[in-house]
Queue: 2 jobs
Job 1
Amino acid sequence: MATVTLKNVKKSFGPTDVIHGIDVEIADGEFIVIVGPSGCGKSTLLRMVAGLETVTAGDIHIGDDRANDKEPMDRDIAMVFQNYALYPHMSVAQNMGYGLKIAGLPKDQIDAKVGEAARLLQLEALLDRKPRQLSGGQRQRVAMGRAIVREPSVFLFDEPLSNLDAKLRVQMRLEIKELQSKLGVTALYVTHDQVEAMTMADRMIVMNGGVAEQIGTPLEVYESPRTLFAAQFIGSPAMNVLDAEIKDGSVRLGGVKIAPTDAADGKVKLGIRPEHLKPDPSGPIDMEVQLSEPLGANTLLHGRLRGSEEPFTASLPGVHRTSIGSHQMLKLKVASEDIHLFDPQTGTRY
Amino acid sequence: MEKRVTFKGWLLPVCLIAPQVFISAVFFFYPAAQAVWQSLFIPDPFGLSKQFVGLGNFEFLLTDRFYRASFLTTAIFSVLVTLVSMIPALFLAVLADRLIKGAGVYRTLLIWPYAVAPAVAGVLWLFMFNTRVGVVSWYLGQLGYDWNHVLNGGEAMGLVVVASAWGRISYNFLFFFAALQSVPKSVIEAAAIDGARFWRRFFTIVLPLLSPTTFFLLVVNVVYSFFETFGVIHTITSGGPQQSTTILVYKVFSDGFVGQDLGSSSAQSVILLIVVGLLTVVQFKYIERRVHY
Amino acid sequence: MAREVHGMVEKRGMGLWLTHVLMIIGVLVIFFPIWLAFVASTVSQPEIVRPPMPIWPGDQFLENYKAALFSGVNVPVATMLFNSLVMAVGIAVGKIIISLLSAFAIVYFRFPGRNIFFWLIFLTLMLPVEVRIVPTYEVVAGFGMLNSYSGLIFPLIASATATFLFRQFFLTIPDELAEAARVDGARPMRFFIDIVVPMSRTNVAALFVILFIYGWNQYLWPLLITTDPEMNTIVMGIRQMFPSGDDVADWPVIMATSILAMIPPVIVVISMQKLFIRGLVDSEK
């Protein structure tokens, strides 16, 4: 068990800076998800914690020790790779026990630990199989098992579910989370999938372009995103962002009052989550519906605002088969606590 | 292509690579440099001293009647070996490809000659065409043809060509067969639906699809006939009669070891080196193209 | 490789039979020299020198092979077989070991001079031993390695085909495996021995077949450096069995020796056919 502390961690590949200085303190036993689009530096950050990439500047502490110059094996970590990285010529048991074998543990201890991990992951029947004889989900479990037997202080996950099909992903998501809280091990988990981030994280780090846009609990990020990027990346369907204006204490869209606010007058970016829009014949938002997607529990309406070319999406509960066809006009309203205002220049939250 | 993940340190990799570098340096680069160096000298007949002649050895070689004849002999020989080894191989591969069952059995039988050393192949063919005891030469005699490759340069050439090509038929067959098996079935079927009959399909669809393999085999077989046929020639004709089967490699050997003319032999090695270099460049150009293919 | 689905373009009936007939004729023609050699190795000398020789095996099989193996002409063929075996295995094993090591160094490390090493090794791809034969002979003679196994083996190891092949293969090993091994605590040599070498098994086996045959079938090099008949390899030794001058060769023994010379490589090729074909097609393409 250990805390992980990153202090102004930077990474450059030659002249290219890929990580611009990340600060975060991770508590013992916390589950941290690093989420962002591809190329944002999230995997590089994880690999620096693992010791697979050198740290250009800043400090990484695992527990009380500065880990920058330690070899991966000396960091008391275990890692689960995106492609599982199982040794193809070794059996499941050998794969799981390889690290212990290198550490010089006697065979009976290795067998005991592997057996215990296998029981935890329901892999007992598969211990003699080779990786190629396993399904994707089973390989995933073996990769987890390999991490568990080392009894590390920190688990590192690099997009571990991205090669699984959708159904299995949901199941494994729960299993990983459950296992982590059972073992009480600190975890860093990298993904590009905001659903995984929302459902698994104690806290998440939303990354973009080598910068941590926001660090917080899933609900904090959802309810009060600190930047436009975080606002649009977290939440599905993505938040609508519109050019708006504040005048006389209210947010106005094309001159129409949307909601009251106490922000100062001027231009702003207005963010409204599609699920916060409510139909209201006297609502201030005038939407022209071009396409509706019935999902069953709710219906997604795609279109644009009257007199505007910008796309706009609303998510209404239930089925709207009859009442809303395409090219209909729809009046909507939004509660004042559900609007998000951002500085149009910097993209930060007001 | 490079690995993203590497290990640190320089001492270990240098140690790992040392055996190969050492062996290459001692048995490869040093001798190759020696060949170039010696090609610039003429040793005296007793081998006690040598005289620097610059490019004199090359000048002499390129005007030497025998050397030019050897060039021509090599050219004829390699063209013939390539043709005689590739055409039957392609024919057999096409036949085997048409079979539903048994192709594997034929393949197993046809691989045999590949494992037979060229020198042994030479002995086998020499035995069949031997002027005293050869079965084939005896039957030819019965038909009124007096076979004597010991005296007749043309017959000698024919015999070393066939003996050299024999084992290569297996090799070429394997490649053609593998290439034919990987021709997409749907392409052939599309052509059949378009009304093309077998031979028409073969020449307009299959052969063009085989062209990468064919080109590769052309280069490889030419290289083979240049260098690896030494054993065949040495066992059957020893370069004779009247040097009619003395290919370039054989001449390096006979001038260097039998004739003890080190300067000339070295110069010949250098010329061969250039020829192989050019062939290798052709081959790599081709491999590069394959990568993008 | 047999395809399971055969569409309308497959030949049926007559055409199929014709294909089989042509195929069998082809195999017989290709096989004829070997068959004739086998027949000659089972008959007596008088039967051969009075042409035409018989076309079916005779009853001298044991006599001829015994004579070849234990007496030979200059030296018992058993000795030559042993020499060939040492040479072929030595070349195959030696080349595989040094190539595995150097390919590992080139692929998994960045060290000063790496590119120069790589290109130097690569250059050796170009030149067969035949081209640099005279100076190589002098080097080997200078080391006192004439008539020795090391003289037979080392000069033929100095080529980079295998290094190049292993390099290609190592590049296909996923990076994540090396990372997983690092996380598991494996140092470079441990990773090499535990992960890289076992994963290369099929490549090693295929290469072994090809190199064994390459070594076994060498002719010019052993011809030059083994002047002592005790060190002759079988492939070059056959030629030494022919008498000089007008004497009649001992054909049954020579043909028995030829058959013995081809048995080991043929066994290796046939028994490891799949591996060998894969190795051949991979290494040459």
Job 2
Amino acid sequence: MITFAMRRVVQGMLVLAVMSVLVFLAVYALGNPVATLVNPASPPAVIDQAIKDLGLDQPLHIQYLRFLQGTLQGDLGLSYNSARPAFDLIFERFPATLELTTVAMLIAVGVGIPAGLIAGYRPDSVPGRMIGGLSIVGISLPTFWVALMLIVVFSIETGWFPTGGRGEVGTFLGIRSSLFTLDGLHHLALPALNLALFPMAMVTRLTRAGIQENLRENYILFARAKGLSPSRIIRVYLLKSVLIPIATVMGILFGVLLAFGVVTEKVFAWPGIGKLIIESIQTSDRPVIVAYLLFTVLLFTVINLLVDILCVLIDPRLSIAEAK
Amino acid sequence: MRRFARKYLNSLSGTAGLAIFTLALLAAVFAPLFAGQNPYDLGQLSILDSRLPPGSVGGDGQVFWLGTDDQGRDLVSAILYGLRISLTVAIVATAFALVIGAIAGLLAAQFGGVVDAILMRMVDLQFAFPGILIALVLLAVLGTGLDKVIIAIAAVQWAYYARVVRGSAMIEKNKEYVEATKVLRFPALRVMWRHLLPNSSAPLMVVVVVEMASAIALEATLSFLGVGLPITQPSLGLLIANGYGFMLTNEYWLSLYPGLVLLVLLISVNLIGERLRQMNDVGESR
Amino acid sequence: MKQTLRMAMMCASALIATPIFAEDLTIGARTEIVMDPHFSWSDANTSYYVQIYGALVHTDENAQLIPGLADEWKTVSDTEWHFHLRPDVTFHDGSELTSADVVASFDRALTLPNAANPYSGALTGVKAVRAVDDLTVSVTTEKPDPIIPYRVAQVQIIPAEIAETATTEDFNAGSVIVGSGPYRFESYQAGDNLVLSRNDSYAGAPAEWDRVTFRFIPDDAARVAALLGGDVDLIDYVPPSFVQRLRDSDATNVITAPSDRVIYLIMDTERDSTPFVHAKDGSELAENPFKDPRVREALTISIDRGAIVDRVMDGLAFPAGQLTPEGFGGFNPGIPVPSTDVDRARQLLADAGYAEGFAVTLHCTNDRYVNDARVCQALGQMLSRLGLDVDVQTMPRSVFFPRAADHEGERFSLLMLGWGSSTSGEADALPQGIHSYDPERGLGIWNLGHYSNPKADALIEDAMVETDIPERHRILSEAMEIVMEDYAVIPLHYQSVIVATRSGLSYRPWASERTIANSAIPVSD
């Protein structure tokens, strides 16, 4: 188990190294940021000086080495737009994103797994059919369109919820989060719901698919024949075998959430890293784009590692397969 | 084949899905015959006809049954042509991603070891970024165009297939019958093709369906963010995105009708996948 | 249970919906502030800074000069200016303003490291800033430069000890934000909001509001929704398509005025073969059609500006026939807005040898100007009706500008650009965008089609060193007429400033689209 984890960590670090090159090249290919940022009335001498000051006149490999050196020291430079250290911006805004993503994930899993269990165990019942139908609608709705509809209906027409922003942030056990204030929760509701819809449908479908598949396995048929209660069958046998694909998918889901978080955060003016990255790409704010991309690589390497370990814990046979 | 078809049509929702999808496909292929105008020919549009409500009569005397968009495109025509683009993007990108992903996943599951490690690290690499961002950065570098959107979406989605195929193939691999084929020294490729792939197809089918839908949604989202397809050739997604700004102004038809068509299209695709999955499951239980 | 839940919900919304005290103002702003006032030179930043800090000279809503920290200024020679400081100005920390603070602030603005958009761009040609006495500051320039007051108006003045020691990080942390403006800094949440409070010891007209919160909402629809939902009192940069809805609502007002920004088309008039123009069959043309003034005229009169204004801009723009709006130096009332005449345009095209038309790519931004992508498509329609094959390419500004503004690179053949005149209060589009490209002298940097007209160049150069303002503006307007008669570029329209408020508020709009808390005034409906 430990060797397995160690190997994964080393692999993860390799991924990071490769990624740093790819990220750097991709951002480099976006072109000269000064042209986008500079006030049009600035004379060329000033523009040239700015390019020089930022080290953008250096050859590619020198720029990469400088960037690498800075990265290793945790310094990715100042945002061209806001004059703040790029990593600070990310760290500052990540809690807002994490909060939104976590709540959305909880909603998705909290609704999706039970719904999937019902639909999977009793596919022909009325609730089963309804869940199946709704889950299809759920994965079919474009996130940004739903976001706008939510705002139109629940903010503007009825005035029940605020239209955007994060609301008041409270502190509890040293953690600052809008989960701890009424105002914060009020602001969180719509964006979290918006973000949760798609993964909710996905979890439902995957759970249902997994259940139905397993229902036909001999041991379940046997358990059913033996007259075990459905809830016991689900708890003891079904859930466990369904959890592996779900656990794998959770990692993917987190990515999906972060990705669609970009759209949700943009529309709901949620001050997380998704909103930040969209604005940074629009304005060629290189240090922030790079910091964001590296941060997500790191984040996902960790998540994937956890998912792998989780899978092994649920089904030790995978670890043996891995070791072979 | 006939048996397969008869079995498929045994389900009402599956049949409905297939019927709608076929209709959409036909509408897309023969769009130029049905459309009142070519919405991609700027010379045929008039800005003076822009944002007319459904049923209005345009400057040239033509009736806009579903209204016009912000450029004066007849929405019926625009939806028909948009359907074409959305379907092309979704089908081609999904096919590319599926082929690449399935091959990668099977190779990883079958050979394990270094092959598995490299491929799965590539998948990790892929998952290290939210899909929209990969596409966003790719398109920022590549520029706009149908081909580029397809490349970007395929590049985003192959890893999903790879991971799912590998995941279920790994489980299958440890089942007795696959162990048996190994003992019997079946060629690796044959094991993959005959046993691992079919047994991966149930979860794969669900993913194909979900990803097909998400390919369309991704394309729409990219358009919404201002990259992707050229604005003069709107797909369904871009039509919705363009109408997005008018939802608050009660000019609902701009994104409502393309949105409904898109929704129906996606639902039909999903119903088909659903039916196929059911059939697959039944087949397995034999 | 359900009942309780509903109660809880209602309480929650009641809490949120509590009317804000009349003395507080919440603004939904499109752009976020950069905390360091000397880091990034843009009008969006200046808009915030003038409310917290203060410059030697200020500009009013119509970009005219008014006294700021200096109550008067004069030229003492062709290349030296004296600015006399008001004696009664104190900073938010209680210290008094002296010329040393001014000198230190200029030093910092000129030398701040890591700036991608440095203030040195605003202070081109400034040789030295020094203290003459406690209340007099001298600014010397390399050449006579009549718009020096506009240049110094860009630089915010902070206490000398802060200017000499504070880093950009200190500003971000909020620990050194000391100005002399009508509002004091209270708090800043990156990506979310900035809170200011009234400065009771402000030397000028007192602040209108006790507390002002700027909420950063870059998304257009979200900003409008925030106003409609009652979360903010005022929003800036309202997209024209939302205006009708906001006007129809009893709860909101819309205030519009002409902005200083003109939108225009640039053609590559320099190269013999321009990369994005071909014959319709894809073959090379014998020469670049845009070099022929008849072709440029044909394009100019084929565009229906009225249709763009009405149908794309919802009536919230003004057709343009030149590069600066009325009220700015260099505007020439004698230049008409071109009227649309497609038949004549076709004839001109035929006369120039392009009866069959040609194929051209029109490049535009899709996130820089009001409705830019939609304007661009409408232009595509109109040029198609003229008989051209038009490929409309829209892209984010981060892709557009590096390609469009790289003078060594490929450059576009036909592109859409906007230009605002508030920074200098006059038609600086002429020296920057029309004068022949001359990087040595810093002229024609935004002349992206490399248009060149020696007669216009000579006039523009004269105007740049003319210190008599009326004469300078007369020369500029003469140059304007010459280049417009030559169809150097194709002016399309002037954008509008559009601000929306909740009912009970009014707003005095700024041509430069500044969002100023003191310009929001309570009214009784």
